[in-house]
Amino acid sequence: MIQAENLTKYYGDVQALSGVSFHVDRGEIVGVLGPNGAGKTTAMKILTCFMPPSSGTASVAGHDIFDDPLAVKRSVGYLPEEPPVYGELTVAEYLAYAGRLKGLGRGDLKAACARVVDRCGLDKVAGRLIGNLSKGYRQRVGLAQALIHNPPVLILDEPTVGLDPAQIIEIRELIRELAQEHTVILSTHILPEVTATCQRIMIINEGRIVAVDTYENLQNQVGTSRQIRLKVSRPSPALRDRWLALDGVLDVEPDPEEDGAYRIESRLDQDLREDVARVAVESGAGLLELAGVAVSLEEVFLRLTTEEKEGTA
Amino acid sequence: MSRVWTIAAKELRSYLVSPMAWVVATVFLGVSGLLFYNAITWFSMQSFQLMQYQGAINQMNVNRMVFGPTFQNMVVTLLLLVPMVTMRLLAEEKKNRTAQLLFTSPVRLGEIVLGKFVAAVVLLSGVLLLSLYMPLLAWTYGALDWGPILSGYLGMVLLIGAFVAFGLFASSLTENQIVAAVLTFGILLVFWLLGWAAQLGGAFAQVLEHLSIITHLDSFIRGVVELKDVVYYLSAAAFGLFLTHRVLESNRWR
């Protein structure tokens, strides 16, 4: 659906993207992750034909961004970082304007407006001036604008920034729903967001793609070990020794902050949760809790972005 | 082409819901009305005095003596007001990041430029046409030749087109509306002053005269619609729009 080849972008002397290539398949949700200034927005602006790359090319929905920008624009709905809304228009007027700009005819316009108003939960504010709406509603109006011409591809730049937690959850659910009919690329620097919504993650740092994969694969790629967290009611040094004796266990450490809690590190390729639990039960320590600790996305992210730095230094 | 109207309609709406359009209309009508009042009072005093001399009254011509200066005064008022109207057209979109909607919609750059241009021209022409009460008054109470009045208004609309095109160009250069306004004012003032420079004579006098905004309006006010004057204003507008288009296109590549 989206194919980017060797995208490079210079702003004057500053290189914002260097040789970025990736592809997104139909119906996928891909999260673009990266620290501020990594080039996420630049990549999105190129894909939406807001500006051309300095070199390289891309195609969206089968249309080349250089040869047929109008067709690309027709097949993309774009929500920029700051929703492009006019404060002096009402929500309904604004959506009608956006619909007409995107080429909806008189007949389709009404139905399209009703559809996005319903979809984005804007029915209560449809008659109000956008300038008087809260940030959360403006964000939704921006999203409605991106959806109005029912494009096959949605490109959302930090769609949940500035929203309250309840709204964040709503928007995430909406995006997941949308992914059933649309191909979605969303960027964020909020890490849990990606795990919450995206099938694949693309990590960008300093204008380069550091990794593209599913969350699980990324975890395995950067993780050197698995961790299990557990809690027993009667901790003892003997228990710790029995765990250490298990094949594959690398380390067992009591949690200094919580009495009876342990952190067990095991080899990456072995899931030892069952064995660890059996040992705890057999030795009568009173197993209370047990959970596998995933390598958090923060860790994946930090490792990948810092590794890259060491590599280039 | 329908996108041009879509954009123009939205811009007009934005003008009408902001105080700007109303302030501009009020100031334009107030100032030009005051100057019209001066001109017509002077004219009637002159007429009153000349009534004492046989035949002299026939030299009094309301078209030439009242509406000539009135049109010139309107040009000066527009010189100050057009920058206020055009400054926001593109600068505001860039500043508020709404340009991203416009430039990622399947709309050609030319359609955007034309839409904005049409909106400002329609607004200013509308304000201008409100001043039609002046010839209507003069016509009600005296002898008025409508020909030069109508051609004068035609010239004014063409002049507004040229003014707006340069204002749009200035607005495309910056995201600061004040900068756009000052720049527009500068450009228009230079074109206006060319007419004065031409009066000084010299080798360039004729060239300057042809470039001046004022001299081309004179024939319209006299009731003569000449092709060269129409072409002058249309090509000035086209040139401004062309520059705007180039600026927007080159901004994308930066």
Structure described in brief:
Chain A has 313 residues and is α/β, with parallel strands linked by helices. Chain A is built from 11 helices and 14 strands.
What is the fold's blueprint, element by element?
The complex is a heterodimer of chains A (313) and B (254).
Chain A: E1 2-11, E2 14-24, E3 29-33, H1 40-47, E4 55-60, E5 63-64, H2 69-75, E6 76-79, H3 91-101, H4 106-119, H5 135-147, E7 153-157, H6 165-178, E8 183-188, H7 191-197, E9 200-205, E10 208-213, H8 215-222, E11 225-232, H9 237-245, E12 249-254, E13 261-267, H10 273-282, E14 287-293, H11 297-312
Chain B: H1 2-17, H2 19-50, H3 62-86, H4 88-95, H5 99-103, H6 109-130, H7 133-141, H8 146-173, H9 177-199, H10 205-211, H11 213-222, H12 227-253
Helix pairs in contact in B: 1-6, 2-3, 2-6, 3-8, 3-9, 3-11, 4-8, 6-8, 6-12, 8-9, 8-11, 8-12, 9-10, 11-12
Care to count the β-strands of chain B?
A: 0
**How is the main sheet of chain B built?**
none
Cα-atom Rg of chain A, whole angstroms?
24 Å
Give the fraction of residues assigned to helices of chain B: over 70%
What is the radius of gyration of chain B computed over CA atoms, rounded to a whole number of angstroms? 20 Å
What structural class is derived from the secondary structure elements of chain B?
mainly alpha
Characterize the largest beta sheet of chain A: strand count, sense, and whether it forms a barrel: 6 strands, mixed
What is the rounded distance between the termini of chain A?
Answer: 35 Å
Order of helices and strands of chain B: HHHHHHHHHHHH
